Amino acid sequence: MQFQLSGQQIEVTPALRDHATAKLERLTRLDEKCIGLSIVLSVDKLQQRAEGTLAVSGTKLHAEAAEADMYASIDVLFDKLVTQLRKHREKISDKHQQEAREARQYG
């Protein structure tokens, strides 16, 4: 999976990169078909923002989080992406199961 971490008006430190990379395993454990993840870190006055776009086969999932701490923002961002990825996978598997039932019924 391609992984891109960038910062707007903030320097991406090795510690931030390591923290985000460690969280990456949660996504790849759920779905090996993840194509790429792009995260943009930024600072808005008192809020540390993290925005992420996850490209999965068939769609793109987007989430953002704003917290007082950048590490917390990254954690919340990954929590949201994991939730979206789970929903996406359930929707796909439900669709395939429904198609299989219809094929048996009319076949």
Key phrases:
107 residues; alpha+beta; Double Stranded RNA Binding Domain; 2 helices; elongated
- Quaternary status of these chains? single chain
Second CATH tier, the architecture:
2-Layer Sandwich
Strand content: 25-35%
In DSSP terms (H or I, runs of 4 or more residues), the helix count works out at 2
Q: Outline the biggest β-sheet.
A: 4 strands, mixed
What coarse outline follows from CA principal-axis ratios?
elongated
Along the chain, the helix and strand elements come as EHEEEH
What does this structure look like?
This protein is an alpha+beta fold and 107 residues long. It has a single domain (2-106), classed as Double Stranded RNA Binding Domain (2-Layer Sandwich). Helices cover 50% and strands 35% of the residues. The protein contains two helices and four strands. Strands 1-2-3-4 form a four-stranded mixed β-sheet, with helices on one face. Helix 1 links the parallel strand 1 and strand 2 (34-44). Helix 1 packs parallel to helix 2 (70-106). It is elongated.
